[in-house]
Amino acid sequence: MKNNAGLIILVLAVLSFLFFLSRGKNVPLLPADALHAAVTANDGCLGCHGPGKQAPLRQSHPPKEQCLVCHKAGKS
């Protein structure tokens, strides 16, 4: 029983640590303009933010096919 309590405390500590790490990211919102208002799928993003386009993403940017998982609509 004593070993189980220690394991539970360790698991809760690790989960808490990971939770607080994930909250530290400040992901920019989508601009509240006409260009971005119509974007409802990731395909709409790569037209401007794909390689060689007017506003390409940096190489260090996380997976480029999941834009709307992190970036939400901005307030108008």
Present the secondary structure layout:
Elements: H1 2-23, H2 34-37, H3 43-49, H4 67-70
Strand composition percent? under 5%
Biggest sheet, in brief?
Answer: none
The total of beta strands comes to 0
Order of secondary-structure elements: HHHH
End-to-end distance, in Å? 55 Å
The rough form would be described as: elongated
Which regions are unreliable across 5 or more consecutive residues at pLDDT < 50?
A: none
Structural class: mainly alpha
Radius of gyration: 19 Å
Mean pLDDT: 83
Number of domains: 1
Helix content: 40-55%
Q: Please count the helical segments.
A: 4
Structural account:
With 76 residues, this protein is mainly alpha-helical. It has one domain. 49% of the residues lie in helices and 0% in strands. The protein has helices spanning 2-23, 34-37, 43-49, 67-70. It is elongated and about 60 Å long. The N and C termini lie far apart (55 Å). The mean pLDDT is 83.
